[in-house]
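> @MW can you paste both from yesterday?
MW: sure, first one:
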Amino acid sequence: MSFLKSMTEQKKIKNAYRAGFVAAGVFLLAAVFCLMVLRALLMPVNVAHVNEVSLVVPRNASTAQIASLLKEKGIIKNAPVFRLYARMRGVDGKLKPGRYTFNTAMSISGIIDELVKGPPDRVKLTVPEGYTVQQIADLLEKKGIAKREDFTRALKKQWDFSFLEHVPVKEAGLEGYLYPDTYYLGSNSSADDIVEMMLRKFDSVIRDHNYAERAASMGLTLHEAVTIASMVEREARVESERPRIAGVIFNRLKLGMPLQIDATVQYALGKPKEKLFYRDLEVDSPYNTYKVNGLPPGPIANPGWPSLKAVIEPERNDFLYYVARPDGTHAFARTLSEHNRNVQKYQ
């Protein structure tokens, strides 16, 4: 009996060891699986197609709030994992507020490093040529650089620049005079700072090229020249055509013909449309150059130097019409019948 009892006890011990090994194996597999999942969640969102995102971390924001913002912007995959990792790193509560530029190729570790270090001293802002003030406002808000309402308020201020002395007060405010360029802003730059920087750049460009004087030699005020340049900017897709389009505008003005520029109608409508219809051409606005002769009250966009230059160095031609081709270039015509043939051909 003692021998059988001993064998039974040994069997129980073996079964217990076996069960323990199985449990340990299951635990180990579960731990490995959890580590793999955690590692995957810590990895960048997208390395193949990198998307740059600007983010403003508010003052006194908790790690949980920052994690939610990052997840909302698509910069991290999982907010709880971000919070857990920050706690494991011992930096919970040490993430600094400010304006950051992250991208989808950054790991959570890299993002936390940046947040612990604090915001960079400079933020890059590129304003494309031909943007309206509303498009600039959209850009600033999208990038988290300034709120739309703050930027709009800054546009209405009385800015002390000599070139603005004779600019008519317009609802758009400063349209045409915010020079499109790449700017580097301080992380705490305000909407006022941005507007002043763009106005200073415009002032520098026109001074360097004696622009007001050269416009005056053509019988134009600075405001008229910038207005024409803005139409050239919005109409031209190929830089080499800008002087030619400027020449067409001058030819029509000289003959007293309505300019009939689609871009001014787009501006009057307040939002871009892929295609204008006849009913759009009836919009009641001083910017509708199909209904109002002469120049509109002011610029319809913020032109870059190539368009500004085209106004003071226009091509001398006898074209009165042009129509866009599918490739973005234009077919120019001297007579209405020739223009109608081009319209049938390309539109």
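MW: second:
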Amino acid sequence: MENTDTDEGVEHAWFVVVNDEDQYSVWADGRPVPDGWRTVGEAGDRAACLAYIEEHWTDMRPKSARGALASGGNHG
């Protein structure tokens, strides 16, 4: 008999979430998205979501840090 009490071996749908600092993460479908985050792209398997993040999150610095540098925060 199959054990139905665990999710072992079950592939869940995932989606990509991004916050106001342009930081990305994967999020399991069916879980409420935390405050300050929004979904982007389409739901898929975890590998597809990670590939989306790799393609779109090209600058790991938070948006506020990028903005500070662009507005003259670089004193070097």
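> thanks! Confidence is low (pLDDT under 50) at residues 1-7.
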